[in-house]
Amino acid sequence: MKISKINLVHFRNYSNQTISFGDGMNIFVGNNAQGKTNILEGITFLALTKSHRIGVSPNIIMFGKDKSKISGVVKKDKIISKLEIEIGEDYKKLRVNKTEIKKVADYISYLNIIIFTPDDLEIVKGSPNVRRNLLNIQLSQISKDYLKYYNEYNKLLKTRNEYLKILFNNNIADKTYLDILTDKLIEKAVFIYQKRKEYIDSVNVNINHYFFDISGDNGVWVKYLPNVEFEDYDSETIRKKLKYTFKKNYMKELNYGMTIYGPHRDDFYFEYDGHDLKYYGSQGQQKLAILSFKLSEIPIFDNYCGTSPVLLLDDIFSELDIKKRNKLLKIINEDNIQSVITTTDLKNITKKYLENACVFNVVNGIVERK
To answer: Do 294 and 153 share a domain, yes or no?
Structure first.
């Protein structure tokens, strides 16, 4: 999968900018606050219909304008798709080949991406919600069924929580309805648990390999932590354990007024040399583990989608020393995938990696090919 072109209109600091990408490595060079990350954000919007950025103003529409538009051309094998997102103050329109798409689930997957940013340190250090969000985004790109089940689960979860409050406040309320909601919730949960476990197992096939190739160290793995322990992840085992858990903890959930068991409380952590990397690893090791996680997702996309994703790397060179950054570039070259990289300079990058790359200068919202 390749993105051949993107057009940003009234998006952040871009008035009307068209960028044509090469099929391999694309490097955007410029000082800070010139708009390099905005390009990656535009690609992310085009792929996921939302931004990847944490703690940044959500108002992506250029000041003084009433809407933004992001459009792009994506090639998957011999199929060419034109994607477009129009964003107003209170609406968002999605189009594929000029046809409006009403459901996000029917739009996502036309452009698959994997993105690494300096904010990704939160994947190790942040709350479980950050890690669940990562799994949900990546699984939604490779499985429309996952996104469907996840959305249905959340709707049922909201209804079940509301009814738990009704039961707590009204002794004569009928518990039968809660049991029906619980059974439906369990059916959705079974699928979500299985897909998340399968995904993390697939990441573990390669994560230590990438970590070793870049750093020379061994011993990085990802550990899945559902808040209900399962002996096995076959459907019947999960179903029986959840039924038992909900029945056993009925009064506890009633008093809390919410569902306290299920995949909405999942977590995972990075293990390094047998210890939780959050507490026993340096910041450099944590960043490398996250980068290795992201690289490990590439073969997963290949396997599920039959094509490689576009790899987005924001300010990656400042995160790595000279030796490690060139090892990363070697991996990207050998994987033969399209990448979009931002950096403040090209110092200490081996010339052979630049020879076939497309290099762009970014100055105050203007992009020019070098």
So the answer is: yes
